[in-house]
Amino acid sequence: MQNNSTMVDKRLSFSSSPSLNSIIPIGNANNHHHHRNNHYFFGSNLQGQLGSCANHRLSNNNGSNYSSLLVDDLIKTLPITQIACGSHHTVILTERNDLYVSGRNVNHQLGIPNDIDESIEVVSPNSGQSIVSNSYIRDFKRVSFGKKIKKIACSSDQTFLVTRDDEIYYCGGSQPVRDPFAVNTCQEISMINPLKSWNDLNQKVDIFVTSCFTSCFVLVSREGNIYVSGSQNAFNSGMLGVGNVDYTRGKFHRVTLPNTQSKPKIVALGSQHSIIVTEKNEFYCSGSNMNYQLGFQTSCGKQIHFVKPKNIPFNGKRIEQVACGADFTFVLTEGNLLFGCGNGVSGSLGIGSSERINFFTRISIPFKIKHLSCGEDFTIIMATNGMCFRSGNNKLGQIGLKNTPTHPVEKVCKFEPLYVDDGIEDIVCGVAHTFLYKSSESCFNRYLPYYSDINPLNCQQAPFWDVILC
């Protein structure tokens, strides 16, 4: 891969040209005003992370893969509170405190045993070879949990539940699962376990952040204490900021930020780098800088402790949001100023070209940003007026664009509008799949759009790139 780290001096602007959408709404089939308050999902469904009845269109001429319009028997009335995405699995939390899980389950990250998984044969988009996955849940299955949940989070191969009592429970990861304690409504054994090392501290959870790109988490207590844990890869990358410590699987570490007494207010994680921002808007980073994702103008390999870089362009400004892709970073400051750096080879930085940016560069935008969300190599932005914008890799449909051998759109290098209905409140991205949704006080039904030539009982008749929302 060519290393293009040319410095960019000029401000970078958004594209205003529209593109064809290929997005799947979830909403109320009985509501004739179905262009309001819908929920959308698109992207890869290779491991069932988008739900059931997926018709995989694989091994075509350009090696891409696509997921078809999804139809399943997910509970007809489902008030969503939160959606969390791992690398290849999805967890939904409802207002009724129910969990719905689907996708990859090789490490029990769905909280249910592998013996109820289904086998599916897929074709690798890279090698073209047939692969049989034996740890795959293609239906959203309900898992009951005996405590009230206030937050869910997914790492690449784990699911975490933070209760209203500030206890943390988890499932998945490489450690053997012990002491299953919960049983869901189908009388299937739940594999959810208490995170004893945290629960024994008897502290309150203020921030809990995971990365869908790797297996790790960063936890900030109400008192401002920072705790980290993760896989050996996460430790070796330096992203946990613990220095040269011997890796011990499952060990809980406390981390301190140098030269500050201010509590963290923002935590964001990439695949090998971490960002922490304090209440005094001090910017700390740790981990790999091989693609300049830390914003240093020269590649320094990696940082193994959290450091506060100098000469960043937003020093002294109030930092409002930080979002990390696998190896790129966005920072949003007061005044609606957006800065980006890192690997933009797939167009994820939205700067109009495929290059790496070796320092935080201002990106001019014509609207006020409400929310930033990044997948592995793509970005989706929500404006305060309800509009969404997208840029980056689209080989698996993860930014909702039509991509077929006859209509190839493998990536977009400049932010362009993503036309969805009003009412979207949140965006969440996995490695290569995306959910746009609205937390609802009322119930909704999943449905198909009103197209007379689509049979809603046969998902194979309507692959998603054929469904166009005008």
Strand content: 35-45%
Low-confidence stretches: 1-21, 27-37, 53-73, 117-133, 175-189, 441-470
CATH topology annotation = Methylamine Dehydrogenase, Chain H
Distance between the termini: 38 Å
Task: Walk across the major sheet and give the strand order.
Answer: 3-4-5-7-6
Question: How many whole angstroms does the radius of gyration measure?
Answer: 21 Å
Looking at the overall shape, the CATH architecture is: 7 Propeller
The helix-and-strand class reads mainly beta
Sketch the major β-sheet. 5 strands, antiparallel
State the assembly state of the protein chains. Answer: single chain
CATH class: Mainly Beta
Overall tally of structural domains: 1
- The average pLDDT value, as a whole number, equals 76
Instruction: Determine the fraction of residues in helical runs and give it as a percent range.
Output: under 10%
What shape does the CA trace take? globular
Name the CATH superfamily classification: Regulator of chromosome condensation 1/beta-lactamase-inhibitor protein II
Number of helices: 2
Query: How many beta-strand runs?
Result: 29
RCC repeats: 37-96, 281-335, 386-440
GO molecular function, one term: guanyl-nucleotide exchange factor activity
Pfam family, one: RCC1_2
